[in-house]
Write a structure and sequence with these properties.
heterodimer; A: mainly beta; B: seven-stranded mixed β-sheet; 11 strands; globular
Amino acid sequence: GNSVTQMEGPVTLSEEAFLTINCTYTATGYPSLFWYVQYPGEGLQLLLKATKADDKGSNKGFEATYRKETTSFHLEKGSVQVSDSAVYFCALSERGGSQGNLIFGKGTKLSVKP
Amino acid sequence: KAGVTQTPRYLIKTRGQQVTLSCSPISGHRSVSWYQQTPGQGLQFLFEYFSETQRNKGNFPGRFSGRQFSNSRSEMNVSTLELGDSALYLCASSFNPGQASSGYTFGSGTRLTVV
């Protein structure tokens, strides 16, 4: 079945450091890929998405590229801020299928120190 | 516009009781999905409703059920609560079903604690 694997945290960085959170997936067909972010005490917010191979999703300085050959969708940011401290979830959804539910990774907690 | 509203935000119940959680989607959204979030299992899909019909269901026991009303508001019910049902229950809405590729909008969740 479909699944998502992302690097375990927690990840602790200093402000302005470079961030990479690895995410790989297993899926039949051609899924859409997402990164969601969850701030403390809140629900999930869509951070970025990519719907086909080689697409790059970007938002708020975060980027991720849909790599079909390596089945990966790694999240990157060039310079993190304290306000980026949150839990990040990689997710997939089968595109074009009748079942549009999301399959999530376990989440990676990011802490950014000033 | 108002986001996805989930009520209540927090709930404490005793084992064996039942509980009902409510979700009001964004105005105009007709599909509602429910997810359970626990530290051990992470985020897991419960079910999806559209036009008052359950369209898709995850791998949860029959104690978990839901429904959707004509105004698209949805409720989920858990009967005979177990300690393991303690979780954050998240609701997400979209215009139409199967639109995860467009990105759902999630509510802030209901934190259920079973004691």
